[in-house]
Hints:
This protein is of the alpha+beta class. Helix content is 20%, strand content 23%. The chain has six helices and twelve strands. Strand 2 and strand 3 form a beta hairpin. Helix 1 packs antiparallel against helix 2 and helix 3 (186-193) packs parallel to helix 5 (214-223).
Amino acid sequence: MNAPSSPPGRRAVLLGGLGCVLTACSSSRPTARNDSSPSPSPAGSAFPAPAAWQPGPGELQPDVKLRAVQVVEAIGTWPPGGQGAAAAGQRVAALGLPAGLAQQGGPLLADSPQAAVEVVYAQYGGLLSDSASVLVVCRQWLAGPDGVPQSAGTTVDVRLSQASPRWDVTALHPADPGQAVAALPDPATRVLAQPRIVLPPAAAADIRSGQVHDSALNAMLTLAGPYSFQISVVRSGHPLMVFGTDRPSDHPLGKAFDTWQIDGHPVVDPATPTDLVDSFMRAAAAAGSYNVGGPRQLSGGATANQFFSDPTHHDHVHAGFTS
């Protein structure tokens, strides 16, 4: 997400709860891949049963994220024979939310007799006092025709509004990366092959679509020299506008990427060394980003507004580019 034009007075700043439990996140999984295509599990293996995602240390408004994640898990996870929008609607209704939200599940409603969602991370796409966008980055396991589990995945922009006792989910916007192109530019090919850059399915598909600018791709490659990092969002699955404003975001234009984990440390975790995140932000600026956001306001920069911080960026580092 891009920097707001001015610090909004309605931003929520409450600390609390628990953050990403590593056993439910791809950071603890050696099988994390820069690949959005289905991948079969070993023959004869049990169908995956990923642990439900839970917020961990340092999260702002942790139950807002949990509410968004639970809807995605309910829509995209079902036992044998539980497929279809109607069954998904029943699972959503059991959360006390409108069953019709299941109709907005998009790729989560794959035609498969069994499925399970594994949430990589839940990142804010926007956080205000009365509304929020949570970007639920996930991998989904589907039972193939031969019963062997295959992995796919997406990112869902879940919109919420303030309510009591829990926030309401108002809409779901799954990622739409577009078709892969036959020939990719060199930076895109190198990013997809770089093991120090971990991409979730929707982000990998964004790059395969050829719609991510070389400036962002080259910055990723530069950062992969001193750091290994996990990207959450590139182009699709992000709000079209900077949340709470009428300004277009750089993400849908293919001119930005967000990083939620650096050298194995979640950005949001208070135990993560501050100098690690701060140095990554400065390195992103040196790599060409005009608009670097993160959990702290950094001084310096080529321009007065090159660095920014707000509650939305408490859990990730945003790097935006002009072209």
